[in-house]
Amino acid sequence: MTPVEFTDTQVERYSRHIILPDVGGKGQMKLANARVLIIGAGGLGSPAAFYLAAAGIGTIGLVDGDVVDLSNLQRQILHTTADIGKPKVDSGRETLAALNPDVTIKTYRMNIDAGNILGILADYDLVLDGSDNFTTRYLVNDACFFAKTTLVSGSIFRFEGQLTVLKPNDGFPCYRCLYAEPPPAGLVPNCQEAGVLGVLAGTIGVLQAAEAIKEIVGFGTSLAGSMLLYDALEMTFRKTRIPKDPACPLCGPRPRIKDLSGDYTVSCSI
């Protein structure tokens, strides 16, 4: 149960937030009462979860059906060499609890699907998508639309990352406004073959956490309606507007997708 007021220890822990005029005690209390679901305890979910726990988010949910592998450790900072073979959600819970005991960590050792995602979303105010495949990305987008839940979406590929906030119920575009359908099977590289710069995951994951905090507290300019593009090779950031698609099959005025009964076929992401 979130305290009605902070203890002296909590005031000290969050003091650098509390002295910010845009956050203050009221903003920190909003963080303490927030419930954030993170899809994937891997490259993006690791740094995002780490900083959200440090920020004092009241409840963090971790969804991941995988176990820690040696090849994960180049970028997935929730886990250590000693965690190899352990479920990622268990390793993540231990790391986050050690960082901040104020935070309640709920774990879901599973792969989300159309049958379970809406039940999980019902307990959360905001979702961060750190998935690495198109199946999950489209499923999470569609489920958040039906649940009317804000989605912070990030993705990475080799040396490039992108980030946006999806709030189609507030008049902004959804993921399908950008890409109406998943690419054909075989068009994109195999997940293991493509490769990724480890610190790129940290950059985009931390930016996801920043956007989540802004959405919860209510300060700054939301990325809703915009896409942030990051190129680690050139060390450049570029923000571009993304329009809402009037023919979107999900959030348009004449939607074809009206529930989660469609075909969500597994394919690798870029």
Describe the structure.
With 270 residues, the chain is α/β, with parallel strands linked by helices. It has one domain: NAD(P)-binding Rossmann-like Domain (Rossmann fold), CATH 3.40.50.720. The chain has ten helices and eight strands. It has helices at 8-13, 15-18, 24-33, 45-55, 88-99, 117-121, 134-147, 175-178, 191-194, 198-217, and strands at residues 35-39, 59-63, 104-108, 126-129, 150-157, 160-166, 226-231, 236-241. The protein has an eight-stranded mixed beta sheet with strand order 3-2-1-4-5-6-7-8, with helices on both faces. α4 (45-55) links the parallel β1 (35-39) and β2 (59-63). The longest helix is centred in the last third of the chain and has 20 residues, at 198-217. The chain is globular, with a radius of gyration of 18 Å. The relative contact order is 0.15. The mean pLDDT is 93.
Q: For this structure, what is the CATH homologous superfamily?
A: NAD(P)-binding Rossmann-like Domain
CATH topological fold name: Rossmann fold
**Proportion in β-strands:** 15-25%
Q: Based on Cα principal axes, name the global outline.
A: globular
Strand order of the largest sheet: 3-2-1-4-5-6-7-8
Low-confidence runs:
none
Structural class: alpha/beta
- The helix content is 25-40%
CATH class label: Alpha Beta
Mean pLDDT: 93
Strand runs, count: 8
Q: In angstroms, what is the radius of gyration? A: 18 Å
Shape-level CATH architecture: 3-Layer(aba) Sandwich
* Annotation field: number of helices: 10
* Helix-strand string: HHHEHEHEHEHEEHHHEE
> Domains counted in the coordinates: how many?
1
Largest sheet: 8 strands, mixed
Oligomer: single chain
Q: How far apart lie the N and C ends?
A: 40 Å
